[in-house]
Amino acid sequence: MENRYTYTHHNEKEDFMAIPIPTSFTMPDGTVYNLDHMQRMNSAVLVTVNGKRYRIPIVVMFSTHCYTDGKDNTVEMTDDLYFHTDDTGHRAFSKERYNTSLKLPDYVRSMIEKSEPCYKLNKANNYVHLPDPGKPDKWRGWYVFFTFDRSKEGGVVALRVSITSYHYRMKKPENLRWMGSIKFPALVAEWLSKRDDVLQQFLEIVDVNGTLKQP
Q1: Cβ count within 10 A of residue 198
Q2: pTM for the full model?
Q3: Contact present, 132 and 110 (Cβ < 8 Å)
């Protein structure tokens, strides 16, 4: 079945995922939903690893799960809102998730630049919790799930932050690796401290002015 979304496709050495990035979705009635806010986003974070400071460029990639729904594996390719199929099954465009995703880039930028508290899950996943104001259960609200990955060989040197999902939950996930929260820069530093081959790609900060050590 032909997809009803348009997309941009970047050169493999320039694009971290080397796959089409949807830019819009057309509903059966002709209404077009723009996906510009779900395009790649650049940022940076300052971290300290093994006593040395680094400025780590970041490229944020947003999964289609941020605005589609698997509907408990009930989506069919013939459905009016069928979007595409990935490793989790058939996905349908969700107007509700789309509307909540409009603020997601701001939340992610705040997570990175304002060092919001994060939580670690099993299998290298992480999340940020955005409480639902006025609800009695403090864990009820929106959850931003993300993972880290290295840049492609020969591509832009940066840390890839993949936003794998963004949705509303009634309670926190059960598979926590650690019960406490950790600030985003510390989470990045922890990830890099176990990957010397990745860390050596980045330039060390050598003074208080943020000057980078030249290779």
Answers
A1: 17
A2: 0.85
A3: no
